[in-house]
Amino acid sequence: MPDYLLAIDQGTTSSRAIVFDETGTSVAVAQQEFHQYFPRDGWVEHDAVEIWDSTLTVCREVLERAGIEAAALAGIGITNQRETTIIWDRDTGKPIHHAIVWQDRRTASVCTKLKTDGYESLVVERTGLLIDPYFSATKIAWILDNTDGARARAEAGELAFGTVDSWLLWNLTSGRSHLTDATNASRTALFNIHEQAWDDELLRLFRVPRALLPEVLDCAADFGTTDEVCLGAPVRVAGIAGDQHAALIGQACFEPGMAKSTYGTGCFLMLNTGKQALRSENRLLTTMAYRLDGVACYAMEGSIFVAGAAMQWLRDGLKLIRHASESAACAEQVGVDNPVYLVPAFTGLGAPHWDPHARGAIMGLTRDTGIAEIVTAGLQSVCYQTKDLVRAIQNDGARLQALRVDGGMAVNDWVMQFLSDILNVTVDRPRVTETTALGAAYLAGLHTGVYKSLDEIARLWEQERRFEPAMKPALRESLYAGWLDAVERVCNN
Hints:
5-stranded mixed sheet; 7-stranded mixed sheet; about 20% strand; alpha/beta
């Protein structure tokens, strides 16, 4: 019998489950979207119960599609949207508030005050992160301060905090496991990435009671066993990593200098820096790449809040296209030399601008502008934002020779060629583009003995297509200059 691994990939707009065999080949997939809540400008919420229900549904569905019983699984790996914050009652297991999503900007004024008061250097030094509403710490405090009795109950140990991985694990194990992994912990702004521990000074600064927090384990570890009622048989949960870290693992970027960029709801570029936690001078993040056998591996990361979400907005909000796949035909019609720029700062701008007050804009409109130009600008915005990150990485002294890509937009040949052209680097697309889920499966396989080493996993990576830069330098510089001008017009910093 082959060794099957179940990957739970809980994302910002949908929950997915994928069964992989030991070669890293997808056997079956199930996916379910869930509701997005936008109660105010810049606020983004999820119903944590919906997240759990959709996750359990797709797990059961994928086993049925794969034609296997849960008993055939060697283990489960979980990967998740990061920073999204959930607090629940330890006795009832019920959330005390909607989950506050990573995109949410409601704590922008709190973050501004902390920066004005001079605390950012402390946060950067301990966590590798900037002070920004993006991270979990201020979200936790907001829920405690805005839910009746929550702060007192948290201090009394009656409540539990978790990012989505911890929430799913709690439910899968019927409340027996309140755990997280080092990558998700590293995105809270409460975890000292050098000491690999929750930081008491940061807990005081952000007013987060220690009693709320989960225990932090390696990415491949014994996270507990699922309750039989969930999948029909108990299964070991043996791997957890935040989505971008899991994608780095799924892309087999195990050597310092290797980089991947994931194009999902947002876009996240991560460069492996090995055992060195390099500090960026260009407002990139220093973060965990992964932690295995107690050994921390670090990365430099640039975060773009809106990538695929821009296309979702063009489809669902403006109704300019019926399906994201139609965008490629628009781009072919318009070509790369598009005078229209879409800056998708719907919830502010991420790296390297870190402007929570920026808002979106479409610029360069004329009477000749049509749907095709605006849709093409949406695609190009993802590549321009990646260029911002690569330029920051290069200014930090790192060299990027090639970029491994994955996620939903990576299947679009036009976008990947434009990405290679605008970056002036080689772009490699793997045979398996669902690398986030694959990375979670690999972690579970490492702990359960399906894989013996990272070298064995690296040998499974296969290139599907390589994109080489072909654009003339003058055009590249002209297009990017137009982008920088557009961004400057929406920034408030």
